[in-house]
């Protein structure tokens, strides 16, 4: 799904948003031409938008009880077609945003499931190793440690001698790793 470092999903999202603008323009042109679309789809939202906008402007200027005169049919159809076009572009953008969110959540969920499976596998392997270690300890001579050494004795070849290692400058013992 990735071509190089550029995700294909983002390219498709950008393409969908770019295609929504001509689609909105075509729908706006159809809305202006069709009497049904014009009367029932474009005019009511345009008149409502105009009424809300004018009431807000009048209140800001201090007029309280003034009535709002409705737009004429031609201006309302134009405003309604513009509102419809913007709603389509906004809707396509919102849909693209939702789809990207859903894709990202799906990836995060899959990643978490993979990590949980790997953790379970490591836990199972640790448990098997513990069982093997217990079996080896039980099978060895009494008092034997996990590596076959009898506890309380020295390893072979040591001879009881203590070996001192000198740590000079540039060695790992003085803090600077060379």
From TrEMBL:
Organism: Accipiter nisus
Residues in coiled coil: 109-139
InterPro entries: OPA3-like (IPR010754)
Gene Ontology CC annotations of this record: mitochondrion
Keywords tagged on the record: Coiled coil
A biological process from GO: regulation of lipid metabolic process
Sequence similarity: Belongs to the OPA3 family.
Protein name, entry field: Outer mitochondrial membrane lipid metabolism regulator OPA3
Keyword DNA-binding among UniProt keywords: no
Role this protein plays: May play some role in mitochondrial processes.
């Amino acid at each position: 799904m990735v071509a190089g470092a550029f995700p294909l999903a983002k390219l498709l999202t950008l393409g969908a948003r770019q295609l929504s603008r001509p689609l909105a323009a075509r729908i706006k042109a159809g809305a202006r031409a069709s009497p049904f679309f014009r009367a029932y789809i474009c005019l009511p939202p345009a008149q409502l938008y105009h009424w809300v906008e004018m009431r807000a402007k009048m209140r800001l200027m201090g007029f309280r009880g003034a009535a709002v005169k409705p737009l004429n049919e031609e201006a309302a159809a134009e405003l309604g077609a513009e509102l419809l076009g913007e709603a389509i572009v906004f809707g396509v953008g919102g849909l693209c945003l939702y789809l990207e969110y859903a894709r990202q959540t799906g990836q995060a969920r899959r990643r978490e499931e993979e990590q949980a499976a790997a953790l379970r596998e490591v836990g199972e392997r640790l448990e098997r190793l513990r069982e093997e270690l217990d079996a080896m300890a039980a099978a060895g001579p009494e008092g034997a440690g996990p590596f076959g050494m009898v506890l309380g004795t020295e390893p072979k070849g040591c001879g009881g001698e203590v070996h001192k290692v000198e740590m000079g400058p540039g060695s790992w013992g003085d803090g600077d790793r060379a």
